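Researcher: Next entry: Probable dual-specificity RNA methyltransferase RlmN (Desulfosporosinus orientis).
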Amino acid sequence: MKRIELRGCSEDQLIEICQRLGLQRFRAVQLFQWVQQKAVRSWDEMKNIGKKDQQLLSNHFNFYSLEKLREQRSHDGTRKYLFRLEDGETIECVLMDYERRSSRDRHTVCVSTQVGCPVGCAFCATGLEGFRRNLSCAEIVSQVLDITYFVRQEDPDFQVTNIVFMGMGEPLLNYDEVLKAIKLLNHDQGLKIGMRRMTVSTSGVVPNIIQLAKDNPQVGLAVSLHAADDLKRNHLIPMNRRYPLSQLMRACQEYTDITHRRITFEVALTAENAGEEAALALAGVLKGQLGHVNLIPVNPVTGTGMLRPEQEKIKRFAQVLESAGISVSLREEKGTDIDAACGQLRRQWEGELK
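Model: Predicted structure:
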């Protein structure tokens, strides 16, 4: 019998399975808390579950933690991890710390949802390696749990406060597993990360943008826009050929009509697309949308040929948007000294193995 992935189980699933095995309900609750709240990485760490019950449970559950292959730390505190999965595939995720003057500091984990990516955006290191497979709910959640575990070895009070599904892969092409992971990360007996503190990023999978609004209107949405006409966007984001801008903008409007939540429109700026004409075109496309533009100077990635624009050009781009009544900000850059672009660390690792 195939064993069940423990880190992907809801509390209700654990209760049902434990009772079927002759264990009381409280044992399932304990098990869930050890796994999802305390982020333990082995059966031995579950101190209030006896060896006999541990043995019984281990016969039915597959409980594995991610293997940390590499950790890089930036001068700004950002940590980037390369993890190996049970089948030998590798993924990246990032921990970003933001200090706040009021309330608690923000600790954001950027998680991956696929091994590689099928979208193939022109500026992204992940797409250069192709697509391998979707991640399971357990593999998605494990990134947050294992980062929590490692950091708590240094800071026992550490808590992840925010999750962004912006790592390797297209989250809305792994829709069901991503939604399961969101529910687990939000659970009261788990890490208890607020729905409004989680954001799903997409390159424009139109049907699932609308479905997300219906299934979970509390979760934030970020749309990788990057260009204001189909010809340019086709080059940057091949997904646009399937779901062109007109369809995408209608889906975004429907999303905000249902959720009443503002969308973050991400725009990667290169030396070629950061002119005033491009900014005016972008303002025209976004007119009437409930949204905010996040400008992202592109990370230089070997193999893409794309270069960053000059700082003055970026500022002027933002000014043009603001003058047109578009809310805009420049992304606070994190980890630029540690292979910041998504997929770079994995490419480096795989290159070393060849």
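Model: Note for the record: The first strand starts at residue 4 and ends at 5.
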